[in-house]
Every structure is written in C-alpha cells, then in structure tokens.
Amino acid sequence: MEFYEKAFVGTAERFFPQPSYLIGTYKDDGNPNFALITFVTFCSVNPPMLMFASRGNKLTRELVEKNKVFSANLVTANMMYMADYFGNISGYEKNKCEEIGVRYNNGQVLNVPILDESPWVYECELIEFKSAGDGFIYIGKIKNIQVDDEIMDTSYGKIDMLSLDPLIYAPGHYYRLSSKVGEVGYSKKQSE
Length: 192
Description:
The protein is an alpha+beta fold.
C-alpha cells in the first residue's frame, strides 16, 4: 500500500462538504423566517432526532429557542438562489419570503413554516440546545416528515439521490451530485 504525505493546514474551518437545509421558524408577527444551515445531521434513530449547529447572531437561533419548534427543509440545486439569499440576508431586516416571492405552508403536525419547493421536510420539536465553542447545537425530535408525491418509496436505500438533486455546500461554493458509485455492503460482496 502506498502512503501519501499530508500537509498541516491548521485547525480552522477549511473544507467540509455538507447537505444544505433551510431552517424555518415563525417570527412574532407571524411571518416565516428561513436561514441556510449546512451543519445538519441525524443524532438519534430511536427516537428519530436531528441536530443543527449555528453560530453568530441569527434571528433563526432566537426563534428556535423561543418557539421550541423548527422545520428543516432540504435544499435542492434548483433552490440555490433562494438558499443563498436566505443565507446572506438577515431576517432582522426583511421579510425574506415576501422579498423574493417564496411560497410556503404550515407544517402538518407542528406550527412551523414549510417551503413548497423543498421535496423533503422535517418538522422538529426542540429537545435541547447548548453552546459549543463559538456556536450552538440544536437537537430536535422529528415529529413529522413531509415528502413530495414523486418520492414513492422512502425506505432505507430506496431514495434516488440523483433525482432528488440535493445542493451540497463546501465553504465558498455549491455543488450537485453527479453519479451513484456504490451501495452499503459493496466491500463485503466484493470479498466473498
């Protein structure tokens, strides 16, 4: 086996490919607010929970802490403009949905805004949040999942990520997936 030398680049945030989500909450005036968050992942299977991390002064953080609920709307490549806008414009200053004509509805189970254009949306109840370095971690129990009608089979390994076309973020850039290269258990099958 050949080994490659590696360079030390420091410990700052450099490169970490991530899925993109728009975290949704309602403002006190009833208007929706969405923020682009790319630090999102599952943290429990039973019960199903996800977590997101955020840093800085954000209206979304304040609203999630106050309202104790949020939606996590998967961003597709077609939603890149909307996601970038929501990630770069402060909710303190504007009604972002009205500004760019975004359509949304209310959650089926929780009082959270749901983006019509997102094909996969989690409705979450805030279970816990805590500080971590210069950021905060929010853990939400998944109370409902809404998916587009075209996504017929949502069981393990059945969702076609290429047709879902999730927007992938890596610091400074957005990407899309181009091909499926394998499946879980591939290495075991090859060694048999």
